[in-house]
Records
---
Amino acid sequence: QAEVVFFASREPMLGKSITLRQILDAKTPEQAANLAYRELPIRYAQRILQIEALPEWQASRELVEVHRLYSENFKDIRLVELDVKELEPFTEVIETIKGRMKEVIPMLATAMRNLQWADGYSEAAIVQWLDAFFLSRIGTEMLTSQYMASAKPDAVALRRRRVGVVDFACDPVNICEQAARHARKLVKQHYDESADVEIVVESGVGGKSSFEIESRIRFPYVPNYLFYIMVELLKNSARATVEAQQENPGQRRPIVITVGADRREVAIRVWDQAGGIPFHAAEKVWSYMYSTASKAAREFDEQGTPLAGYGVGLPLSRLYARYLGGALYLQSMPGVGTCAYLYLKRLESEAREELPERSSVSSCSLV
Ligand code: W6P
């Protein structure tokens, strides 16, 4: 426990968060191992203390379980000897950790939902607590994935321009197109074959701005994150669009995705014409406690349907955007539709990892 407190008091990277450049620089398994070995104990220790700072956390089965998983991670990574000539034991530890972390997000969402209902904690405080926890979770997941990808690169990664989980020349238009295809498939699975949404992808290339010389927008990014965010936005827009189409057939309601960029930023706008977000639901969009899907859609499949989810998709998407310095906003046009704006940093030295504030670790109070 003393060791946990000691590590938690250190800041990741000696006071600094990591930039995408540092992650890109950890190309070899040895470099990625060093980065993970140095960073992970600090981050696990801080999450352990974040749980312990919750009053009566021991009364929650899920919180006790997540605390145990993080304690095991901390112990395993502290006990393993990092020998760059023989990385197999380290790889095994990272694999074990990755397996252990799979259920953390649904477990914590459940735990906090129960806390809110049982003890009347304020919703904003809970969102803040979970945002901090999950943002850190994205960071540790990035470090373990980066290590695994460099230790065991697959054939695809080798052929492409990949460095671990990062694509040097990530093509946002292409990813939007993939996400659109995936969203349409989910709609057909969830409703029926006749249900369909029109999704148009346009890009700003060809304008007379500074990126005129580019034929396609490309930037260093984690394609998995962008795909996740886009699918999540499109799931929401598509579900609302199908429901609006059912109520009022005959009206065309294409979802339009527009991708633009300058030298510093990539921006993606998703515009749907599904009637907007009802006023009473506006606050709930970023909460982990609700699903924006109708109750019927949720009961369709108790596991959380691919289209409805646990209600963690949008808040998690915003964290993925923020994690490397970006942002995600939603604007509702009442009675008309909803616009989502996603901004991503383009320069890898600027795309700095966003980490939970220190205060959310030690002095977390939920009331
Ligand atoms: C809606 C509701 C919603 C939530 C998130 C993103 C887009 C949309 N569209 O109607």
---
Amino acid sequence: MNLSDEIQRRRTFAIISHPDAGKTTLTEKLLLYSGAIDRAGSVKGREGAGHAQSDWMEIEQERGISVTSAAMQFEYRDHVLNLLDTPGHQDFSEDTYRALTAADSVVMLLDCAKGVEEQTKKLFRVANDRGLPIFTFVNKLDRPGREPVELIDEVEELFGLRAVPMTWPIGSGPDFKGVYVRATGQIQVFERAKAGRKARVAGQGSLDDPEISALLTPDELQRLKDDVELMDHVLPAFDLEEFLAGRQSPLFFGSALNNFGIAEFLDEFLDMAPAPHARPLAAGGEVGPESPFTAFVFKVQANMNKAHRDRVAFARVVSGRFERGMDALHVRGQKSIKLNYPHMFFGRERLIVDEAFPGDILGLINPGLFRIGDVLSAAGPVEFHAVPRFSPEQFVSVRLADPGARKGFLKGVQQIAEEGVVQVFWPRGGAPLPILGAVGRLQFDVLQHRLKTEYACPVLMEPRGFQMARWIQGGWPEPSRFWGELVEDSEGRAAILFENDWQRRTTAEKNPDLTFQEHPA
Ligand code: G4P
């Protein structure tokens, strides 16, 4: 297959959701449909079924959650799907956000009873800021939930995004019967499936087909007809341009657990989701997907294999055909390197790959070489826009168990911070140890664990009351005109840590000549 065909058949995406909305279940079902696994239930170890492949780190195993985010590849209908992992638990990290820098589209998964929840909002903003097209899948229709129209309004009110139904639920909760597919005017009536199997379709056909409508009660049929009429007259038609511009979101209904509506979603997803496209360069211009090989690192993961203490850098291929053993320029290091053992994740398996294409995620064994944002290029010294750092929301002070270990600690913390696990802030005016910030608390546990096991430097951590960091532009505020703590980040940029929004607002008001930015410039 030529390069252009390989590009056109790829879809690289992430699922964003609040914990418990069903992301793991949906992922399992997508793999099930693709044939990457023969029975659902193997993505995440549940009910003592042991740990799934992605639980690499000890700490993950202790907690039974996944700290890392990488990607899984699977095929469906001649397409290659790369699903980026976005850890969804409460303690999610910058990695979750960063995964979105490698995605071409996003599936926003909502629990039909809960609608848009906190973590979904945060992730939505990142996806939307990046201009990613967003699908919406409303899950758990087999349970009582909110009215579809209410959910549509909520998405519009919160995000200014028009959710346009592509499917429509027939009934809900125990009476959920199936979905109406607007594109075809067909209804799918489901029979509940046994755990881990594909849903059986009890019937499929047009609304006027007596055999199909007989599967619904007269009330259900009438209600559906009314709903369809309402949709067609009141809601805007789906417009691909509007979707790709991030202004419309195609909306699907179903139940991941019961496999309802998954195939209907997947089919339309493949048609609508964009294939890998050009990526802008920092210096202006862009790299088209058919240019020679380029890729950028969006995640560095340490200790995936405890026996080898290796580090893996995950790089998203932006352009060109990657071949194992090829040479590429490591742009930051200004050195050509040979890419010998790239890994990819197929379903649950981690394999060495010989070839990869735009949209694919390579796992590169990293002897301390790669940092987030690094570019590999067979097209000369190109640089993409920096992979953003996200503003931390949790902060700790550290104390060394052995005060003599300061040097080792600083080295360890610097290396681990370069991987993007935590951010380092030095109090202005001097302090022997920095304040550390992270997007989620779990990152501190990861840091503590790694300092102890990799750098033989056990530390104690004390939570600090700060809630946010802002980077200051225009100088430092006058001593009596700010609330919070002045700090410098690891690159010496001026920042301030605030305990609450009042401090932030008041400081901004008292310093109109300064700007306080959520992300470093
Ligand atoms: P997450 O990764 O987004 O955190 O969610 P996960 O898939 O783990 O699902 C959270 C819970 O919601 C699980 O139940 C899961 O079975 C359930 N769930 C997912 N999809 C559906 C659905 O379509 N309908 C219903 N009724 N439930 C759904 P659990 O009790 O936490 O785990 P388990 O013991 O059932 O595995």
